[in-house]
Amino acid sequence: MSSENFKIPNSLNEHWMPFTSNKDFKANPRLITEAKGVYIKNHKGKTMIDGSSGLFCNPLGHGRKEIIEAITKQLETLDYCQPFQQGYGGSFELATKISRHTPGDLNRIFYTICGSTAVETAIKIAIAYHRAKGDSKRFRFVGRERAYHGMNIGATSVGGMINNVKTFSSVMMPGVLHMRHTHLPEHKFISGQPETGAEMAEDLERICQNFGGENIAACIVEPVAGSTGCLVPPKGYLKRLREICDNHGILLIFDEVITGWGRMGSAFASQEFDVTPDMITMAKATTNGIVPMGVVACKEEMYDTVMDASPTGAVELFHGYTYSGIPISVAAALAVQDIFEKEDIFNRVKGMVSYFQKGLMSLQDIDVIDNIRGYGLMGGIDMKLNTKPGKAGFECFKACYEAGVNFKATGDCLIIAPMFISEEKHIDEIIDKLRTGITNYSKNLKN
Ligand SMILES: Cc1ncc(COP(=O)(O)O)c(C=O)c1O
């Protein structure tokens, strides 16, 4: 349906929208009616550039024919196949392809439904692995402040965003500890990795000393924290986390739901920062975001340990989902893998990074901007506080939407993540429209 004859549904009351200010939205809806390439169109017929690849999940652009065709063909031959004690060829083919890109020997692939379920699965695999080794006392997990790992109980517990936890604190996982985040006051207007702050990794050592490293199953971090505004790890930080984990027998999990599949300029942030974790979680770009899929890649030795601990014929891991690696998601992911290869996507991103980062930093003269940072094709723009936390971010998001650029704002941070298929003219358009939107927001403040 084209935007011209689109009608707002009679009632907006029944749909309780996720992570949305429902009252504000329903008073002034922002409905998207079409999406093609790097552009989306709203119900008023306005075309906007997509400045955050949807929710960081559509980096190959909207309406990709190859993916649509792959899904359609799959639905016509095998629309569903139960994933427990049965399988079909595609999921194995995809696991082989994914394992060609994962670092080290993270070659064993478990499918989930989304990023949250990938994180929860990684938590369970960590416990199952230690138990299989006869080490069942490790029950603690270490996360980090300002982390976002998803919204089920496991992922919320290891996450570090206070608003996501407050209401639900009574049902959070026990035994979870948090390191401090790595975004320091001196990290102002830095593109790339900050030189200072590696010592924040010592928080993990301190936790080991205070709670017993031998009680900790795993430490989970986003190599670059995405949803809280592109917090880039200081130089040496991730390497030090790896060392501390090794010293205490703790598994290191990189949550690469956003950073995975090219956003940092390498297939995974792990390769970009040259640190190999024991597990990687991924989702989003795996299917170009158009059908749900999550993935956990884990080390061969971990898989072997869990397999060897069970008698032949028994289920080795009591875990899985109705939608683990279902044909429609696998078909999309296989088509995505083809596009990565044919269009040399990771190198393409690498080639665009400095252009994007320069554009982003060019906004620093705008008076209402407090800070800008970025890595790869991702950046965060912090807005100065406007009476209460979150107001500046939301008002600015709305002003930018009016100016013709759409993105995700978290609190007072605008998160910009252009598509991997972007050309320089698209980056220019995003930056120009950000300048217009943020400046308009600033003018409104003064009036
Ligand atoms: C790093 C990270 N992990 C996990 C998730 C949760 O993914 P999902 O929303 O697919 O459950 C997200 C979502 O943004 C994420 O950014």
Short description:
38% of the residues lie in helices and 16% in strands. With 447 residues, the protein is α/β, with parallel strands linked by helices. It starts with 21 loop residues before the first helix and ends with a helix.
Give an overview in words.
The chain has 15 helices and 16 strands. The chain is α/β, with parallel strands linked by helices. Strand 1 and strand 2 form a beta hairpin. It has two domains: 163 residues, Aspartate Aminotransferase, domain 1 (Alpha-Beta Complex); 276 residues, Type I PLP-dependent aspartate aminotransferase-like (Major domain) (Aspartate Aminotransferase, domain 2). Helix 3 packs antiparallel against helix 12, helix 8 runs parallel beside helix 9 and helix 13 runs parallel beside helix 15. Pyridoxal-5'-phosphate binds next to helix 5.
